[in-house]
Amino acid sequence: MEKSILSRLNGDKVIWTVVFLLSLISIALIYSSSSSLAYKEKTTNFAFLIKQIQFVFMGLVALYICYKIPLGWYRGLANIALLASIVLLALTPVIGVEINGAKRWINLGFTTFQPTEMAKIAVVLYLARALEVSRMETFKEFLIRIVAPVGITCVLILIGSVSAALFVGMISLMMLVIAGVKWNYIFKAGGIAGGALLVIVLLHMAGLTLFTRLDTALSRITKFVSETEISEELSAEERQKEADKTYQADMAKVAISSVGIIGKGPGKSTQRYFLPHPYSDYIFTIIIEEYGMAGGIGVILLYLWFLFRCIILVKNCTKVFTALTVAGLGLLITVQATLHILVNVGYLPVTGHTLPLLSLGGTSLVILSCAFGIILSVSRTIDVTSQKKKLQAAAAGADAGIPAQTAETAKNKEEEKEYEIMGPGDQFK
């Protein structure tokens, strides 16, 4: 009897299962939620179904390639990846194309590419490598090796997306805390970041047009915090403009409030015709509307299951780079999913973050698939190494006439001494 696909793959089987389940759910959701987009582009839902299947396939191929790449390659590529991301981010305002009012994409001819998505993973790999090779004994070293490159990346991302820049900054902060960087370093870096952001806002108010997305971000935050009623004294056109500012959030609330534990059923969403981006920014709303609270909780549990397995994997890592890489990428995926969900249910202002592996495919789906692949590469390496050591221990025990179990136990004790897991902050003591 042939082995199942999962049994043929090394690495954490739970993470593989989560990837396959999210991919299948994505295909079903996009077929349902793309009606308005299909109408706009004068095509059918089936065309977007085929398109999503293609993106899912490309994502799985990218995931498998990253899964097979040796971990040493990621160490070597960490600095290069960040440098390439910075160059592409700098070029985007110059040669990029504008979509939905934002200039975040570079046209490659056959498709469009969003450098911000690449930069997210590049920052995680860079931080993992930098924190592995350096003890950060002085704040000057921390400033040069960590704050400067990550800060430059966030400022360049800020040109096209305020929420994405804040998101990268937040993930970086979490990684620094997990790594055990001195708190006074973190507070000083936070002060520098806050000062830089204040200067950017003041320059923008003074007429600098480089950071055009600041107005959109400030408007969304203001409307979210104030929630004031539209004055009747305004003209019809002015009232419509005010209503348009919260239109997405309002339609999402209508969709979520219209169902209970059980939703309307697959393909029976009505708000998909009114939400501007039900297939990407508001796909969790469609999940709730069609599958109810039960469907929404089910999807949330998949991401939590994935995060739990990442925590277990971090504990099993024997190197700082692999531990921080898994922690950073695991947080990147789950925090992005959390932000998307909180926006959809009305607890955060609109941010534009997609739901990992579920939203309509493109740069985000393929690159986030790479993030899953890198995590699985770490898991695969741990599994393969463990299996080899068990075989070596058994062989050594057989040669010496020692029972295999006894030899394996002795070998494990030696490994615990030699490959003792470095705890948070150990590399900075």
Keywords:
16 helices; mainly alpha
Description:
The protein is an all-alpha fold and 429 residues long. The protein is built from 16 helices and three strands. The chain has helices at 5-8, 13-33, 35-40, 45-68, 71-95, 115-133, 139-160, 162-179, 183-205, 213-226, 236-245, 247-257, 283-316, 320-344, 363-400, 404-418; strands at residues 97-99, 102-107, 112-113. The protein has a three-stranded antiparallel β-sheet with strand order 1-2-3, covered by helices on one side. The longest helix has 38 residues, at 363-400. The chain is globular and about 75 Å long. Mean pLDDT is 84; it is low at 407-429.
Offer a quick outline of the entry.
The protein is mainly α and 429 residues long.
Which helices and strands appear, and what pairs or packs with what?
Layout: H1 5-8, H2 13-33, H3 35-40, H4 45-68, H5 71-95, E1 97-99, E2 102-107, E3 112-113, H6 115-133, H7 139-160, H8 162-179, H9 183-205, H10 213-226, H11 236-245, H12 247-257, H13 283-316, H14 320-344, H15 363-400, H16 404-418
Antiparallel strand pairs: 1-2, 2-3
Helix pairs in contact: 2-4, 2-13, 4-15, 5-6, 5-7, 6-7, 6-8, 6-14, 7-8, 8-14, 12-13, 13-14, 14-15, 15-16
Helicity level, as a percent range?
over 70%
Can you list the strand order of the major beta sheet? Answer: 1-2-3
**Main pleated sheet:** 3 strands, antiparallel
Shape descriptor reads: globular
Can you give the mean pLDDT?
84
Write down the Rg: 24 Å
Number of helices: 16
Distance separating the two termini:
53 Å
- Spans of at least 5 consecutive residues with low confidence: 407-429
Run of helices and strands: HHHHHEEEHHHHHHHHHHH
Q: Kindly estimate the percentage of residues that lie in beta strands according to DSSP.
A: under 5%
**Category from helices, strands and their pairing:** mainly alpha
How many distinct beta strands?
Answer: 3
